[in-house]
Each structure stands twice: as structure tokens, then as C-alpha cells.
Amino acid sequence: MSGDISDLGREELAKVSKDFSDTGQIVLPYNRLLELYGELTELQQMIDESKDQSLRTLALEERQVALEDVAEAERQIINGLLPKDQAESGGAILEIRAGTGGDEASLFSGELLRMYERHSQLRGWKFNTISSLEEGDRVKEATVEVSGRGVFGALMFESGVHRVQRVPATETQGRIHTSTVTVAVLPQATDVHIEVRESDLRIDVFRASGKGGQHVNTTDSAVRITHLPTGLAVENQQERSQLRNKEKAMQILRARLYDMERQKLDNERRASRNRLIGTGDRSEKCRTYNFAQSRVTDHRINLSLYDLEGIMSGVSLQSIIDRLRIQHDLDELADMS
């Protein structure tokens, strides 16, 4: 290959560009870390030698800021050294289902859906509903496509059972009830990621049911697709068009098949170590939202934050995601050692 970048093909140029970007994720924070070490040395010298109390106080404050910047630079370097999961850089399919708790579970399911929607808006991601079964503020189940850079890498730890503890509006004696909602976050698959053969599919059409317009119960617009080798079945009846319902069902099926393959490889690679943050399995209890105490507890990393309103608004959710990411990276480093 010639040293002239103009001789590179499109795929080669994309690879070089990506490699350069990945290298920058280590080099830039490393250079910043060296600068911070120099700053800390100067600040410590000032603290030890200065007789001006106000100057020493200022140096102590600046040192604390520098130490926080060191921790962030170290985190970026660690993240840059870890093996890259291609799925983490892409979008995600978010599935939310009300669990135990009846109407209260459906109400909380709707609140979680809106929390993720607001968080997505803050991150500049696109949030599009693929299918939903809801009535007013109650959401029995919903499937959403979240598109943007790094979506799956950010939301992957949201998978699991989310538990809410609060007094329902219909409770007359003030008793606290516990309800659950199941969240599953799947990587957004493409044709490059996974191949699905038509011969492996059984496609059934049927009449849509539930609330809707004239198409409900009058035309065979709903679609169910079964992947015969795995037995996975997906159905969609959100759209009036049978073709659109088929496209959306295939999108969800691809995501689930891709996730199955990733989980299989992940389990094989990590079978020798019990991971603190868990597997991300939807049956695993991950978080409790206690409204009486305004407390949110993530059980996987033993983290409790007394900012329920901020988290449910989608603003403070990032603080939990960041801590889960740090623990995940530490687990990855432990696996590599």
C-alpha cells in the first residue's frame, strides 16, 4: 500500500480514520494526565512552602479540582485500552414491560418510558416507538428504537427488573406497595451483524386487536414472525400497513438474534468470573425506586442516590450510567489480567 492517503479505498480510509480516532482516545487523556501531574507537583509545593494562608487555601481548592480531573483522565485511558464492542457504538432497541403489581406496574412502566425518552432528548438521540400497548398513562408494554452514537453502550446496563416502592393513588390506608417493570436493552442489529435466511422464518398475518381505527379487526395487518431455528417469535400490529408491521417485527427479531449471539460469546469469555454488575439479564433485579425516601438504589454496585425527581426526569440518570460504566470497565480490566 502506498503512503499516500489518496490511494486508499473507502473501506481502508474508514478503518484508518477509526484507528486514528481510537488512538486519540488514549493519547489525548494521557497527555492531559502528564500535564495534571505537573500541576499537582507545583500546587503541592505551594501548599508546603507558602506562608500566605489565602494562597494555600486557593492551592488546596485547585488541587482538589486537579485530582478530580486526574480521575477522569485515568477513566478515559482505561476505557480506551479496553477491547471495543462494536455494538456499543450503535443504537438500541428498548423493551419495557409491566411486571407484578397490576395498574401500579403499568403506571410505573409509563414513567420509565418517559424517563428514557427525556434522557434521550438530553443526549440528542432519536426516540421512536415501534410498538406499544397503553391506555392513558398506563403502559403495559412498549418497544422503542433509540438511535444515535453510543446509545447501546450507555443504556446496556438498564436491562433488568426495576422495582418501585410507593403508596398508589388508589391506596386508602397509606400502605406502600411494591411493583416491578422489566427492561431489556438490545443492540440495534444490521445486515452486517447478522444474517437471517427467509427459509428460517414462518410469517403469520392476523387481524389487529385493541384500540384503533377502522383497520382493527377488519384487515389482516398484524404480523407475527417466528425464527424456526431458535423458536423466537415477534409480532407487531402498531401500523395500519402489513408491510410496515413486517419491517418493524423483523427489526426487533434481528436485534434479539444479535443479542443472543453476543450474550453467548460474552458468557463464554467471562464464564470464569462472577461480574459485579451482572449479566444484564431481564430477570435480574437491578434497581429500586423508593418514592417515600426519594431514593434510587442500584443493587449491582450498591449505589443509593437521594435524587428520585432528577433521575425520573432523565437528567440525573447519567450519574448512575457513569458509575455502572466505571464498574464495567474495572471488571473488564480484571478479566484481562
Largest sheet: 8 strands, mixed
Ends: how far apart? 36 Å
Total strands: the figure is 11
- The H-and-E topology, N to C, reads as HHEHEEHEEEEEHEEEHH
Helical percentage:
40-55%
Mean pLDDT: 82
Main structural class: alpha+beta
| Strand coverage percent | 15-25%
Please state how the strands of the largest beta sheet are arranged side by side.
2-3-1-5-4-9-10-11
Shape: globular
Quickly count the helices.
Answer: 7
Uncertain segments: none
Rg from C-alpha positions?
24 Å
Give short descriptive properties of this protein.
three-stranded antiparallel β-sheet; 7 helices; globular; 11 strands; 22% strand; 337 residues; alpha+beta
What does this entry look like structurally?
The strands form 2 sheets. This protein has an 8-stranded mixed sheet. A 3-stranded antiparallel sheet has the order 6-7-8, with helices on one face. The protein has helices at residues 10-49, 53-81, 103-123, 151-155, 242-270, 308-312, 317-336; strands spanning 92-98, 126-135, 138-147, 160-166, 177-187, 201-206, 222-227, 232-236, 285-290, 295-298, 303-305. The protein is globular and about 85 Å long. The model has no long low-confidence stretch (mean pLDDT 82). It is α+β, with helices and mostly antiparallel strands and 337 residues long. Helices cover 44% and strands 22% of the residues. Helix 1 packs antiparallel against helix 2 (53-81). It is built from 7 helices and 11 strands. Strand 7 (222-227) and strand 8 (232-236) form a beta hairpin.
